[in-house]
Specification:
Helix content of chain C: 25-40%
Number of helices of chain A: 12
Protein name (chain B): Membrane protein
Strand order of the largest sheet of chain C: 5-6-7-3-8-9
Oligomer: heterotrimer
Distance between the termini of chain C: 30 Å
CATH architecture of the largest domain in chain C: 3-Layer(aba) Sandwich
CATH superfamily of the largest domain in chain C: P-loop containing nucleotide triphosphate hydrolases
Pfam family, one (chain B): ABC2_membrane_6
Keywords (chain B): Membrane, Transmembrane, Transmembrane helix
Order of helices and strands of chain C: EHEEHEHEHHHEHEHEEHEEEHEH
Largest interface: A-B, 37 and 40 residues
Helix content of chain A: over 70%
Organism (chain B): Neobacillus kokaensis
Number of domains of chain A: 1
Number of strands of chain C: 13
Largest sheet of chain C: 6 strands, mixed
Chains: A mainly alpha (267), B mainly alpha (260), C alpha/beta (326)
Transmembrane segments (chain B): 21-44, 50-69, 118-138, 144-170, 197-216, 228-248
Shape of chain C: globular
CATH class of the largest domain in chain C: Alpha Beta
Number of helices of chain C: 11
Structural class of chain C: alpha/beta
CATH topology of the largest domain in chain C: Rossmann fold
Radius of gyration of chain C: 25 Å
């Protein structure tokens, strides 16, 4: 555990070195958020039937998405790991005393955590002080807030466990580009980052519900806005947990599998 | 100009050394905007229209801005990735060659994989055009071509401004993304769906409005008043690159007096 | 041909702040320190000379090269090269010069070297016929036949440097600036590069200005050196002159048949090593003539062999740096 903490600490202080970059990132995300909100506002203006998610809830959704972008974006990647796998220098990593799965998992988690810590608060705070109806509101109850925090963190753990498969797949394909593309496009769409899941046609929603992606972004954001009621949220957290356990278990198995092959090939 | 094509050729040869990665990246460039377009399609499926604009009209907007974007990213990549040139110190090399800095920086990098994105947006363009009841005339076709050109000029101008910033600092360059990626994302929809101040900013300051929103009204026969005004807007928008050019020259002069 | 007069240049450097609070402040306000890189530099170089431009790191070598090649504009001073002011008419001036930055490449990494040459031909607008003759000559003298058709990324450092030099000569410039052309090269490549520089200087009359840290380059190539330190010209003249002035120590090594009796050393001699068969001393020729020292030794022991070594130029330069405290 201590190793993981020190990795996180190192990342944080490295991230602090790039303050200007972080500032620029925050500005960009704000602009992005505004564009999305205005587009939805325009769509909602002449909507013939009541949309399945209210504009206010949607705005909460969008600001949270911007604030926690690094929690939910599959595109955010570690090129070091890719290089390690494709160059065959993986043998060095195998000498480490810690299990490879745990170590990589912690590394990826730390990267996302440290960037998010630097970026989320400015966005959340400014979004809170925006004029109505564009502002981010406080969650409507303490329970909802607690549920949101757990859902968000579990969502992050879940996303990292999904992204582990991305790295594992590179052992087989040996080209990060293809894997990144498939994982990136699929996860972005089905996590509801392009359009929120409730706005998708029914048949797509059904697909999204089966896949793990929406539990990383769509679910926590809607818990916050109260679009998903508290008792449903509690059940959702159980679903997240089971997904997490299954994916980590599968991930470890898959990693051990590909590593065995590497050892056999003497790579 | 001929030397620009020579640069193009040598970069193409280099790119062909890495065919697999070229195809994969092009495929990626095809699918990334594809998912965005899918999102747009589903929104129209649910809402039917956006402030009076139909799906195919918006699709046309989308196609034009994405085409302009992919062409500029391919051919003006040298300015887009200018910070590399500065960090490596290769800009000194540019200055000891008897050609304009503009053509040399343009020629320093190309991103051919944007062909994938271009293909995707051409497909959207064809779909949108064949589904819209437009009475085509020569001037309308000319306007459509001008729209793309002005888009390319505007994106290139923004890249040049960001590149000029590198002469002072290479940190925080991501801000330029607001105007390139952000501009592209925003101009996927007609400008009048946004708040007035956004529409104004992107008409008079960074004239993305002249790439699709304004001339599109002429093509779609939605104009009020003189057609000519709407027709020439892309040409006016293209002028955006002129001040960028002067700013660039100023930046080069600053670099040569400070050497940093 | 090259004439510099009173060139000076200073840089403003932002002070780096440590600590979060200082860094936040630096976002809005920065403090600058001014560093004078060049102070009143003047020299002239005639056509056909090879000049070694030397000095420790940070002395202002690259700044001078950058000014002479038109990249940088100096604060004050006049610089006329072939009738042009380099930083004024940049595009017409740079046709006359070739520049090799030893640590950076001007070749396109993934394509055969020949393709890079062809593109440079177009960049410099060299007529096809002229290009044909130049390139043939370059390939022959630099022995590039085997490598011009391979991509640059497959070449060794030495091969690449030969191609770099060829690349900067495609437009037949009259002045060649070489910024550390032998850095990182192995001994064989170094010799090849030096030989070639000498050849083009002799046969085409190309004026060469060369910065380097390798004194062997200077010794092999340059008759004239300009030593710069802390932004000033400290020495400008012949290498031999430099040696005469500062390299007055010589090393005498004497072999003799076994000798057990003590030897009386020449005046002012410094003993480097001393055995029953061999003696190595260092003397200052200002005080003791070499011939006197040898005579004195031969009277005491039965000499079988004597070698006299002048002080390596390397040592002289180190001594100079020390003397000027740079």
């Amino acid at each position: 555990m201590k190793v993981y903490l020190s990795v996180l600490k190192l990342r944080l202080s490295m991230g602090m070195q790039y303050r200007t970059a972080a500032l620029a990132g925050v500005a960009t995300q704000f602009f992005w958020g505004f564009i999305m909100i205005m587009v939805f506002e325009a769509f909602y203006e002449h909507a013939s039937s009541t949309p399945p998610i209210s504009l206010k809830e949607l705005i909460q959704y969008i600001w949270l998405q911007q604030a926690f972008l690094v929690f939910v974006m599959m595109w955010f990647r570690d090129n070091e790991l890719f290089d390690l796998i494709t160059s065959g220098n993986i043998s060095y990593e195998l000498c480490r005393p810690n299990g490879l799965y745990g170590f990589w998992y912690a590394k990826l988690l730390a990267q996302r955590l440290s960037s998010a810590i630097l970026r989320c608060f400015p966005i959340l705070i400014i979004a809170y002080f925006l004029p109505d109806p564009y502002n981010l509101e406080l969650p409507h109850s303490n329970t909802a807030f607690l549920l949101f925090v757990s859902a968000l963190l579990l969502g992050l753990l879940l996303l990292v466990s999904i992204s582990m498969f991305l790295y594992i797949s590179v052992f087989v394909t040996l080209s990060p580009m293809g894997s990144l593309l498939v994982f990136g496009v699929l996860s972005e769409f089905f996590a509801g980052l392009i359009i929120p899941v409730p706005l998708m046609p029914d048949w797509l929603q059904q697909i999204a519900n089966v896949l793990p992606f929406r539990w990383t972004a769509d679910f926590p954001f809607r818990v916050y806005s109260g679009h998903i009621p508290e008792h449903e949220a509690a059940i959702g957290i159980l679903v997240q947990l089971s997904y997490l356990i299954v994916l980590i278990w599968l991930g470890r198995k898959a990693l051990n599998g590909v590593l065995k092959k590497v050892v056999v090939q003497g790579g | 100009m001929s030397v620009y094509f020579k640069y193009l050729l040598i970069h193409f040869k280099s790119q062909m050394q890495y065919r697999t990665s070229f195809w994969l990246l092009s495929l990626g460039q095809f699918f990334i905007p594809f998912s965005v377009f899918a999102g747009l399609y589903f929104l129209f499926e649910r809402f039917g229209q956006i402030k009076g604009w139909g799906f195919f009209e918006v699709a046309l907007c989308f196609a034009v801005i994405h085409m302009a974007f992919s062409i500029s990213e391919c051919f003006a990549r040298g300015f887009d990735s200018f910070s590399d040139l500065i960090i490596k110190g290769d800009f000194d090399r540019v200055l000891v060659r008897p050609r304009s800095t503009f053509v040399q920086v343009l020629g320093s990098k190309f991103e051919f994989t944007r062909a994938g994105r271009l293909l995707q947006s051409v497909m959207v363009l064809i779909w949108a055009l064949s589904s819209l009841p437009i009475e085509w005339t020569i001037t309308k076709i000319a306007t459509l071509v001008l729209m793309m050109t002005s888009g390319v000029f505007i994106f290139t101008g923004i890249y040049m401004l960001a590149a000029t910033m590198c002469f002072w600092t290479v940190q925080g360059l991501e801000v330029a993304n607001i105007f390139t990626d952000g501009g592209r994302e925003m101009a996927q929809y007609p400008l009048n769906i946004y708040h007035k101040w956004v529409a104004r900013f992107f008409t008079y300051v960074i004239p993305f409005g002249t790439v699709n929103y304004l001339p599109l009204q002429y093509i779609l026969g939605k104009t009020q008043g003189s057609d000519l005004m709407y027709m020439v807007t892309p040409a006016l928008g293209s002028l955006f690159i002129l001040p960028c050019f002067f700013v660039w020259q100023f930046g080069v002069r600053h670099y040569r007096s400070t050497g940093s | 041909m090259i004439h510099l007069e009173g060139i000076s240049k200073s840089y403003k450097i932002a002070k780096r702040q440590t600590g979060l609070r200082q860094a936040a402040k630096a976002l809005f306000y920065r403090e600058y320190t001014t560093i004078a890189a060049l102070k009143d530099i003047s020299f002239s170089i005639n056509q056909g000379e090879i000049v070694g431009y030397i000095g420790p790191n940070g002395a202002g070598k690259s700044t001078t090269i950058k000014i002479m090649s038109g990249i940088l504009v100096p604060d004050t001073g006049k610089c006329t090269i072939m009738g042009c002011t380099p930083w004024k008419e940049r595009t017409s001036y740079v046709k006359n010069i070739g520049v090799v930055f030893g640590q950076r490449s001007q070749l396109w990494w993934d394509v055969p070297v020949m393709d890079s040459f062809e593109l440079l031909k177009d960049i410099y607008k060299v007529p096809q016929q002229e290009y044909q003759t130049t390139i043939k000559l370059l390939i022959e003298t630099l022995e590039l036949q085997e490598i011009v058709n391979s991509p640059v990324r497959q070449l060794s450092l030495g091969q690449r440097m030969r191609c770099e030099i060829a690349a900067s000569l495609i437009h037949s410039p009259q002045i060649l600036f070489l910024d550390e052309p032998t850095i990182g090269l192995d001994a064989v490549s170094k010799i090849a590069v030096r030989k070639f520089i000498k050849t083009i200087n002799k046969e085409k009359g190309v004026t060469v200005i060369l910065t380097t840290h390798d004194m062997n380059d200077i010794e092999a190539l340059a008759e004239r050196v300009i030593l710069i330190g802390k932004g000033n010209v400290l020495y400008d003249g012949h290498l031999e002159e430099l040696r005469k002035r500062f390299g007055t120590r010589k090393t005498i090594t004497a072999d003799y048949s076994q000798n057990t009796s003590p030897i009386k050393m020449p005046a002012g001699a410094e003993i480097l090593s001393y055995t029953q068969e061999r003696l190595s001393i260092s003397i200052d020729t200002n005080h003791t003539k070499t011939s006197d020292a040898i005579t004195q030794l031969s009277q005491q022991v039965e000499l079988t062999d004597v070698t006299i070594e002048t002080q390596p130029i390397e040592d002289i330069i180190v001594k100079l740096y020390k003397e000027y405290q740079i």
